[in-house]
Amino acid sequence: MEFQGRVAFVTGGGRGIGAATCERLATGGAAVGVADLDPGPAEEVAARIRAAGGQALSLTCDVTRREDVERAVGRVVEEFGRLDILVACAGVTRDNLIHKMTDDDWDSVMATHLKGTFLAVQAAQKHMVQQKYGKIVLVSSTSALGNRGQANYSAAKAGLQGMARTLAIELGRFNINVNVVAPGFIETRMTRAVAERLGVDYEQMKAAVSASIPLGRVGRPEDVAGVIAFFSSDDASFITGQTLYISGGPAA
Ligand code: NAP
């Protein structure tokens, strides 16, 4: 129960990696604010946590909107009394080769990943600075190192790594750690949508990707949630500004 007495706020908490993270932190004893664009999946995750004996609150929150983010963070603090852990997990892809990428493809990816993370961090750090305690985990991707069709997404995910290093420098004096997880191929709705868009069978796609991964399989949301939990814990107290790739092999 390493998170007993701790309070977490997870954006994009309704599905995939975010949902697994909410459940992992709750299993460790944290009270969790499960924030998502869509209230249905967020409430399902919160209800599962409560049914297992934990504490959770679902929140409807579009991370691109300052008023949503400030309201959601405020509600979590009102309900649970503090805020110790922020996981900025909300994400979208709008893949296109550069000559076909639209302004909307670019803007929506930047708004969700970069502005959304900025807004969540800004709202959360106020409480963490006062407490002189905080753990912030951002979610990047192996795509930060380059991936065909993802000029927008890879720019945003690389940007998050720079943001984390700067936040680590600014917030370290307040005992706030800021780290980044950078997953490879994880089995979620996001990668399933890529297969659908390419007209490829998802099982075949996973098999092909697995063949290129030293551990011989694609990742599961729990593989990422476990590392997020580590960065959110006091075992990681002297680590900040770091990015850890979670890709089943030494190369991203
Ligand atoms: P997912 O299953 O599609 O989950 C993404 C979640 O983010 C969804 O619940 C979605 O809500 C939410 N979201 C999207 N836009 C939002 C917004 N404006 N405000 C609030 N919530 C929003 O995808 P995932 O694979 O778990 O992705 C989670 C994170 O991991 C993302 O940042 C993604 O870029 C990153 N990542 C994923 C992989 C992978 O292979 N899956 C690899 C590297 C990094 P709705 O469902 O309501 O739209």
Set out the fold topology:
Blueprint: E1 7-11, H1 16-27, E2 31-36, H2 39-51, E3 55-60, H3 66-80, E4 85-88, H4 103-131, E5 134-139, H5 151-171, E6 176-183, H6 189-198, H7 202-211, H8 221-232, E7 243-246
Parallel strand pairs: 1-2, 1-4, 2-3, 4-5, 5-6, 6-7
Helix pairs in contact: 1-2, 1-8, 3-4, 4-5
The structure holds NADP nicotinamide-adenine-dinucleotide phosphate.
NADP nicotinamide-adenine-dinucleotide phosphate is lined by residues 11-12, 14-18, 36-38, 61-64, 89-92, 112, 116, 139, 141, 183, 185-186, 188-191.
Question: How many distinct helices?
Answer: 8
Order of helices and strands: EHEHEHEHEHEHHHE
The name of the CATH topology of the largest domain is Rossmann fold
Instruction: Estimate the mean pLDDT confidence.
Output: 97
CATH class membership of the largest domain: Alpha Beta
Relative strand content: 15-25%
CATH superfamily of the largest domain: NAD(P)-binding Rossmann-like Domain
CATH architecture of the largest domain: 3-Layer(aba) Sandwich
Q: Identify low-pLDDT runs.
A: none
Unique bound compounds: NADP nicotinamide-adenine-dinucleotide phosphate
End-to-end gap = 32 Å
Largest sheet: 7 strands, parallel
